[in-house]
Amino acid sequence: MLNFKKGGLFSRKDEPEPDVQQESGAQVLAVWGSPGSGKTTTAVKLAKYLADKKKDVALLLCDSTTPMIPCICPPGELEGDHSLGSILVANAITQTLLKQGCNTHKRMRHLAVIGLQKGESERCYPTAPTELIRQLLEALRDMASYVVIDCSSYIYFDELSAMSILEADAVLRLMNCDLKSVSYLSSQQEYLKMGGFDFGKMYKAVSNVKSSEASEHMEQVMGSAVFSIPHSPEVASQVLAGNLFADLGLKDSRGYRKEIEKIAREVFGV
User: Fold this and answer.
1) Closest CA to 175 of 234, 219, 214, 211
2) 40, 91, 155, 235: least buried by Cβ within 10 Å?
3) CA-CA-CA-CA torsion for 187, 189, 192, 198, nearest 10 degrees?
4) Is position 92 within any domain?
5) The CATH number of the domain where 216 resides is what?
6) pLDDT in tens, 36-87
7) Whose CA is closest to 70, among 32, 119, 30?
8) Which one, of 183, 173, 167, lies nearest residue 224 by Cα?
């Protein structure tokens, strides 16, 4: 499978366009989990990791109740103020429409972001039909080398997130080190089974693990976790500042950076 098409969204007129081959691994990753488990943060950091490696990546933010674009980067960092809502009201989703609806990052030319804008909600747009959502996911595959989808926790009420989980090549399932996360995830099992979800493509991860927490005990409850994402005060500060595309340079963030790299290697082969 090829990366972004020549002459596409990420090409530059003054640069040659190399023929880049897809790495062996997943192309589309859905990031999902319990509320407050760091889904958006993890999705953004994975997309940034790929973009920093000069891999063209599209980041799709599904949350329709809380627009996440204002929460992940300061105003002015993205070129354009396009909305996911304007894509999902079209009669059909074409490559041209999708590219026009992407917000490219001014510093990271390999990154595009799609989501609702500040002040919007699901009430601003009519409900998107299933076929249009399917077209969106297919168009993202055709446009991008890699697609990272930040899914909402409430998949029963969010068809875009639910379909993303079902259609993705891999799913990264996050949970916190608490019983509330365990209860939430167990409540979603039957719904996923009813939808025909392939549990073999799921990667389990414990998120925001602090040294004082017994993550081994949590693994016994949820099954063996493939990844353990440690707590990082620097990441927490970036979340509060709404600046998740910033680099992580502090020594205390080394463990967090290593785990993001580990996820990218395991899932994407990058």
Assistant:
1) 219
2) 91
3) 160
4) yes
5) 3.40.50.300
6) 999 999 999 999 999 999 999 999 999 888 889 999 999 889 998 899 998 9
7) 119
8) 173
